[in-house]
Amino acid sequence: MGIVERIKEIEFEMARTQKNKATEYHLGQLKAKIAKLRTQLLEPPKGASQAGDGFEVTKFGHGRVALIGFPSVGKSTLLTLLTGTQSEAAAYEFTTLTCIPGIIHYNDAKIQLLDLPGIIEGASEGKGRGRQVIAVAKSSDVVLMVLDASKSEGHRQILTRELEAVGLRLNKRPPQIYFKRKKTGGISFNSTLQLTHVDEKLCYQILHEYKIHNAEVLFREDATVDDLIDVIEGNRKYIKCVYVYNKIDVVGIDDVDHLARQPNSIVISCNLQLNLDRLLARMWDEMGLVRVYTKPQGQQPDFSEPVVLSTDRGGCSVEDFCNHIHRSLLKDIKYVLVWGTSAKHYPQRCGTQYVLQDEDVVQIVKKKEKEEDGGRGRFKSHTTGAVRIADREKKAPLKQ
To answer: Where in the numbering of this chain does the TGS domain appear (predicted)?
Structure first.
């Protein structure tokens, strides 16, 4: 029996099992088995030494956004409108067969937009090159799930289920669970609050399913069984997702209002070029990019080309700003002067751990190089004279 058949068999067993207190341990073990099998399904086959046939492209710019959706929902047309890159669009499905990149120039930043082939139900099992498409989406900062406004809501649920099956968690944060494997000592289970979904016995059974008999587990929130399995697996990717409903020009105003009020959703029309500016603004907010402008000493700030930082790509502190310019700059820094929304007064003198905000202006003050004679006047660090008093040269007496 193959891995896919075993997964379907376990899912069928979970569907016919009643959910109550007596069966929660059994269901927890079944969820752990499915997670293990899906991890094995994503691993390359043994003995495959040659490279795969993926279509990964080189990262470029300050961020990466991937377009994911079913065939013929308007992904290629959206790429052409936002970037100017010509992507083939036609009236038949699966027009795009490979990954087509484009660059969006927005707010003095460069954002890479990837047009991926359409995926179908069963993409997590490898149907329609679904694994390659989802692998590219894992390397993105934000996922734009393009949906057809005239179709049913089931498409959104199918795509979300396919992405979660391969370890992508959309619009979620990592669970506050501390997990560490040990060599000896057994399993240590603790929590800082009362748990309602997981108890000690269920945690032991899930760990034994993974053949883990020595570990330390600490719950800092009321997490579920799925959260515990995600922490044990350790290969989950938590990514932001915006649901983009295209073709709103073919539905009624009531349906458009209903779709626009859903969380993490935005409505557009590529045919009439409606609401594209709102889509770019929402994409910018989700990526959380921070533009920092430099100011040389005694000169005006340089607003032509900012230094773009991100929390997901290194951080937004002064230390990250200096490392972005040059690695050797940090050891020569004395302090920095900051102007902008993050400063309490202008200018504010800050250290290397200060967190910058969007459109801040930074001036770096370096340490002065030590002179060869060790300083001047009473600030000398050393002297060239004799060390002992007896060895000092006596001065001539003053003339009377």
So the answer is: 288-366
Q: Terminus-to-terminus CA distance in the chain, angstroms?
A: 115
Q: Which residues touch 228 (CB under 8 Å, ≥6 apart)?
A: 175, 177, 198, 203, 206, 217
How do residues 171-208 score in pLDDT, each as one tens digit?
Answer: 999 999 999 999 988 999 999 999 998 889 999 999 99
Structure letter (DSSP) for residue 330: G
**Rounded Cα–Cα distance for residues 199 and 215 (Å):** 16
% pLDDT > 70, the chain: 85
Residue 39: Cβ-neighbour burial (10 angstroms; 0-12, 13-18, 19+) = middle
Residue 12 CA neighbour count, 13 Å, CB half: 6
* Strand duo 177-181 + 215-219: pairing: antiparallel
The single-letter code of the amino acid at 149 is: A
Per residue in 9-45, pLDDT (tens digit) is 888 888 888 888 778 888 888 888 888 887 777 666 5
The backbone torsions φ and ψ at residue 302, rounded to the nearest 5 degrees and listed phi first, read: -95, 105
Q: Does residue 110 contact residue 62 with C-beta atoms inside 8 Å?
A: yes
Determine the 3-state secondary structure of 59 from DSSP: coil
Q: Are 153 and 76 in contact (CB under 8 A)?
A: no
The angle at the Cα of 70, spanning 91 to 234, to the nearest 5 degrees, equals 155
